[in-house]
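Board notes, transcribed. Complex of a protein with zinc ion.
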Amino acid sequence: MLYSKSFASINREVPKDEMSVNGQLLIKGGFMERVTAGVYAYLPLGWRVYRKIEEIVRKEMLAIAAEEVYFSVLMPKDLWIKSGRWNSFGKILMKLTDENGNEYILGPTHEELAAELARRNIATYRDLPRAIFQIQDKFRDEEEINSGLIKTKEFIMKDLYSFHATQQDLDIFYEEMKKVYSNIFSQCGLKSYIVEAAGGNFTSENVHEFMVKSFGGDDTTVFCELCDFAQNKELKQVKENDRCPYCGGLLKEEKTIEVGNIFKLGTKFSEDAGAFFVDRDGEKKSIFMGCYGIGLSRLMGTIAEIYHDEKGLKWPTSIAPYPVYLIKMNDTDPRVDVRIKKFTDRLYNQLNDRGIEVFYDDRSEVGGGEKIIDADLSGIPYQVVVNAKTLQKDIVEIKSRNTGKTEFLKRSAVASYFKKMIQ
Ligand SMILES: [Zn+2]
């Protein structure tokens, strides 16, 4: 992509009341725009980051033989009355009424519809187990919306629903999902912790959250210093300086961000929806359900919250909008400048031909200092600089945004270098 042709610039003004670190970095870096409080629009660079995260998640879901679906965002009131959540979900449910007085919600999550679809599509034990997932915009009328992408009124979520004939089958799938989730977060550059939690009427053995340690976190988690035990403070079973219920180790509190959650729903939603199956013994039984969520937009905000320095973002290569940021330094001597441009254009084409995605700052009217500031803000992992000096030696300067390390390479060696570093 050529910077000169790009829709949005980098180094943008941040609204004064944008308080969160991730919100400031993502707006300033040209990744998103605030539409209104708690609502953001993704700009081209931001959407590329989002799509890379989405692809990591989708690949892992398909790998466990889940099928992708797309539910409706709008759901009729009836479904939510049946589950009791029309009222119990509270004020954050976004309700609306059409011209004829029919009431709907904008989906904040989709257990009701998943159970309803199971009722219509699953008849006997031969139809089980099954797993479906979707990636979709969800809506919650959150009041505290000053945390960038961490908490918004509109957000993008991956939600998976699993259907089983027995509790034991659900338990096995649930444990498998714990591994899949940890693997997804690690591919996004995050160390996640599996934390005991509670949600609605569900108890701690049936709910787990995936937490990432961060000063900007809106959750507090109690961690054991010695073993893997961790519990959301909201559960109130343990507190700081208590002893670990498993190993006796000392417990410490830390700020965390929840990046995913998994629930063993059991038969609650299937019974509300009337989702039954006929078992081998000919008996009619309730379907066991599990649900597994990852807030994808929140995940992007969390990564920004963690990967940055005073100059801007520092994306992990796996989710960077582009791995390479190519910079042509302009020269005051027009003859030299033409040669630098030719050299850089050629390098850009070579890298593209080798399948390496490059963001190329080809702007002719912008000074070198400004170009470097933009490159740093963008957080793109590798900066490749061409100027009069390097041109003379037929080399380029390559700087790692992550380590700050600089090296010089022959132009002919650049494509192979990135092939190795990126793939
Ligand atoms: Zn312990």
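The chain has two domains: 3-309, 322-422. The first strand starts at residue 32 and ends at 36.
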